C-alpha cells in the first residue's frame, strides 16, 4: 500500500445537496422488488446455472413472492435464450409475475431479445449502456453526445418492436450503467432523453434503474444522488425509480436503505447477495430488515433454510456462517452473559404468536425464518451456566436447579477449554451425568423397600441393603418420605454427616417412557455443598439415588 500522501486514490465527490430531506425520513412501506439472481447473479458464477438449475431457481423466486424476475440476457447466449423460451412455451410463468430481460443498447441484440420474449404474458425489456466518464473514455472512446444517442436509439428500437409481440404486455426499463459514477447532470440528461424517446402515454410509467454498478462512496452519497435525481427529473410521477446496488465497499444494504429514504420505489438484488465481485444487494437482508421494523416486505422467508439450500445447490456458492439472518451462527450465542440473557428473555416471552419480540441479543425470532431455538446456544470455554442449562433442558429435558448451574457450568467450560473446542450437546449431557449421577462408592445401595406405613403420622419406615466403606449392612429408618426416612436410617448408623439443603424433581418425557429426574444438594457438616442427581422410572428411587450420589460426591472430595 502507498504511504501518505496517498495519490493513487481520491475522495469521491457526490452531488451538492445541502437541503437533503432523506435523513429525516423513515421507511414506511416495502419497495417493489425485482430479483436479478438469474441474470446478474448468474453472470457472476464460475459455473453458470444450467437450464434445469435456472428453472429450479425461478420456481424458488416465485415461491418467495417475487413479482418481477430478471430471467437473463437472452440475446447473450443460447442457454439464456432457450431458458426464457422454455418458461414461455411451457407456461411456467405465473400470471402475476413479470419476467425481465436485460439487453445492451445494440440493434441486433434488441431484435433477438424480442424473439425471446414473444408470447410471455408480461415482460420488462431492460435496456442499458454505460454512461460514466471512465467507461466513456476507456471502454468506448465516445463523447457524451454519442453515448446519449446510443441510449436514445436503443429506446426507439425497443418502442418500435413492441407491436411485434402483441400477446405480451411490455414495460420499459432503462439503466445508465454506473449511474453512481456518472456526472449527475449528465445522467439526468440521458434519462430525460430516453424518457422523451419512449414518450410514455398518460398514466404509463417507465422504470429508470440507477445502478451503483461499482460501489465507490459512502451510502449517504448514494442517497444524495438518488434524492437529487428524484428532485430534478422532469416527470417524476411517470417514472419508477429503481435501485441496483453492488457491494464493493460492503455497504450495499445501507446504500439501498438510504436510497429508499431518498425516494426510490423499487429495488433490484439477489438472494444472499450473489453477484459480480462482492455481490449485488442482498434482498433477503433488506426485506427482513423491513420485517423486523414492523413492515411486511411481501416476500416470504419463512423457510429460509430451504431457500438457502436451493440457492447453494444451484449457484455452488456458500452462505457465510455469520451472514445476517441466514448464516449458521447468527442465532448462536457462545458468550456466557449473552446465553444467560437470551435464556431469561426466552423464558419471559409472551407465548402469543403476535407478542412483541423482546429477547436480548436476538433482534428477531429465529422461528419466523424457520430456525430452531435448539441451535441457539452452543457451548465452548467462554460460555456461561445459562447456556449449559439451556442445552440440557432443550435437548434432553433436564431442568437443573439454578443453584447447580455455576458448578456444572465450570466443569463443562473446563472440559471445553482443555479440548480447545466447542462441546456437543451429548458431551455436555455425559459430563453432567457422569459427574452427578450413579455415584456408588463408598455408599452403594442395592435395595430400598418400604417396610411400614403409619397412617396417623403419615410417615414411612424404609429399609435399605447397602455397602458402606466395604461393609454390607441393612439399615432402617422412619420419616415423612423416602429421603427423610433414609437420612434418619443413616443417622442411626452414624453414617450421616450432612444436612439436606435442597431437593427438587421433575419428570422427563411422556407416556410409558416417562422418567423422573431428582436433584439433591447436601451440606457436609463443617464445609462444602454437594449435588447429586438421580434418574429412574420410579420417582422415589430417583430421589434416593440422587441423595446417595450427593453423599458419595461429598466423600470423594
Ligand atoms: O450493475 C449494473 O449496472 C448492472 C446493469 C446492467 C443494470 O447490472
Ligand atoms: Zn449489476
Low-confidence stretches: none
**What name does the CATH topology of the largest domain carry?**
TIM Barrel
Number of domains: 3
Total strand count, please?
14
Q: What is the helix content?
A: 25-40%
Q: Give Rg in angstroms.
A: 34 Å
Question: What compounds are bound to the protein?
Answer: 3-methyl-2-oxobutanoic acid, zinc ion
- How many angstroms separate the termini? 61 Å
Gross morphology is: elongated
Question: Which class do the helix and strand fractions yield?
Answer: alpha/beta
CATH H-level superfamily title of the largest domain:
Aldolase class I
β-sheet strand percentage: 15-25%
Strands in their spatial order, largest beta sheet: 1-2-3-4-5-6-7-8
Most strands sheet? 8 strands, parallel, barrel
The appropriate CATH architecture of the largest domain is: Alpha-Beta Barrel
What does this 3D model show about the protein?
The protein is an alpha/beta fold. The two termini are about 60 Å apart. It is elongated and about 105 Å long. The longest helix is centred in the N-terminal third of the chain and has 18 residues, at about 145-160. The protein folds into 3 domains: about 30-315, Aldolase class I (TIM Barrel, Alpha-Beta Barrel), CATH 3.20.20; about 335-430, no CATH class; about 445-555, Alpha-isopropylmalate synthase LeuA, regulatory domain (Double Stranded RNA Binding Domain). An 8-stranded parallel β-barrel has the order 1-2-3-4-5-6-7-8, surrounded by 8 helices. A 3-stranded antiparallel sheet has the order 9-10-11. The chain has 17 helices and 14 strands. β13 (about 515-525) and β14 form a beta hairpin.
Amino acid at each position: 500500500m502507498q504511504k501518505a500522501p496517498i495519490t493513487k486514490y481520491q475522495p469521491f465527490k457526490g452531488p451538492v445537496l445541502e437541503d437533503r430531506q432523506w435523513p429525516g425520513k423513515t421507511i414506511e412501506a416495502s419497495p417493489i422488488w425485482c430479483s436479478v439472481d438469474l441474470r446478474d447473479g448468474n453472470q457472476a458464477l464460475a459455473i453458470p446455472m444450467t437450464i434445469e438449475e435456472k428453472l429450479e431457481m425461478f420456481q424458488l423466486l416465485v415461491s418467495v413472492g417475487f413479482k418481477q424476475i430478471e430471467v437473463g440476457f437472452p440475446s447473450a447466449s443460447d442457454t439464456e435464450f432457450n431458458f426464457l423460451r422454455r418458461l414461455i412455451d411451457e407456461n411456467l410463468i405465473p400470471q402475476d409475475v413479470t419476467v425481465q430481460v436485460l439487453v445492451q443498447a445494440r440493434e441486433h441484440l434488441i431484435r433477438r431479445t424480442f424473439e425471446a420474449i414473444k408470447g410471455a404474458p408480461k415482460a420488462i425489456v431492460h435496456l442499458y449502456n454505460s454512461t460514466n466518464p471512465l467507461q466513456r473514455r476507456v471502454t468506448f472512446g465516445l463523447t457524451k453526445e454519442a453515448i446519449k444517442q446510443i441510449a436514445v436509439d436503443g429506446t426507439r428500437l425497443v418502442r418500435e418492436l413492441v407491436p411485434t409481440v402483441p400477446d405480451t404486455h411490455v414495460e420499459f426499463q432503462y439503466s445508465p450503467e454506473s449511474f453512481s459514477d456518472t456526472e449527475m447532470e449528465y445522467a439526468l440528461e440521458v434519462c430525460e432523453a430516453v424518457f422523451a424517446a419512449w414518450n410514455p402515454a398518460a398514466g404509463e410509467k417507465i422504470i429508470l434503474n440507477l445502478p451503483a454498478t461499482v460501489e465507490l462512496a459512502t451510502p449517504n452519497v448514494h442517497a444524495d444522488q438518488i434524492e437529487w435525481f428524484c428532485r430534478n427529473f422532469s416527470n417524476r410521477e411517470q417514472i419508477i425509480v429503481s435501485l441496483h446496488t453492488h457491494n464493493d465497499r460492503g455497504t450495499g444494504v445501507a446504500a439501498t436503505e438510504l436510497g429508499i429514504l431518498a425516494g426510490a420505489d423499487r429495488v433490484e438484488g439477489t438472494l444472499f447477495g450473489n453477484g459480480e465481485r462482492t455481490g449485488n444487494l442482498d434482498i433477503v437482508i433488506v426485506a427482513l430488515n423491513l420485517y423486523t421494523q414492523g413492515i411486511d416486505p411481501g416476500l416470504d422467508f419463512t423457510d429460509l433454510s430451504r431457500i438457502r439450500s436451493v440457492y447453494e445447490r444451484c449457484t455452488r456458492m456458500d452462505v457465510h456462517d455469520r451472514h445476517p439472518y441466514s448464516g449458521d451462527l447468527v442465532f448462536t450465542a457462545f458468550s456466557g452473559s449473552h446465553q444467560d440473557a437470551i435464556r431469561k428473555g426466552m423464558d419471559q416471552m409472551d407465548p402469543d404468536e403476535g407478542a412483541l419480540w423482546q429477547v436480548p441479543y436476538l433482534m428477531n425470532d429465529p422461528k419466523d425464518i424457520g430456525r430452531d431455538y435448539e441451535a441457539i446456544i452452543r457451548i465452548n470455554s467462554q460460555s456461561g451456566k445459562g447456556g449449559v442449562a439451556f442445552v440440557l433442558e432443550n435437548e434432553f429435558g433436564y431442568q437443573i436447579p439454578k443453584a447447580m448451574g455455576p458448578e456444572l457450568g465450570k466443569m463443562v467450560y473446563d472440559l471445553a477449554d482443555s479440548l480447545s473446542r466447542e462441546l456437543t450437546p451429548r458431551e455436555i449431557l455425559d459430563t453432567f451425568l457422569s459427574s452427578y449421577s450413579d455415584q456408588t462408592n463408598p455408599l452403594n445401595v442395592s435395595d430400598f423397600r418400604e417396610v411400614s406405613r403409619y397412617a396417623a403420622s403419615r410417615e414411612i419406615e424404609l429399609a435399605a441393603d447397602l455397602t458402606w466403606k466395604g461393609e454390607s449392612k441393612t439399615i432402617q429408618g422412619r420419616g415423612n418420605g423416602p429421603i427423610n426416612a433414609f437420612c434418619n436410617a443413616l443417622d442411626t448408623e452414624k453414617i450421616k454427616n450432612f444436612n439436606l439443603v435442597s431437593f427438587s424433581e421433575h419428570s422427563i418425557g411422556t407416556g410409558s417412557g416417562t422418567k423422573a429426574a431428582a436433584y439433591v444438594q447436601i451440606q457436609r457438616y463443617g464445609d462444602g455443598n454437594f449435588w447429586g442427581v438421580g434418574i429412574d422410572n420410579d420417582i422415589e428411587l430417583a430421589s434416593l439415588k440422587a441423595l446417595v450420589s450427593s453423599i458419595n460426591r461429598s466423600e470423594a472430595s
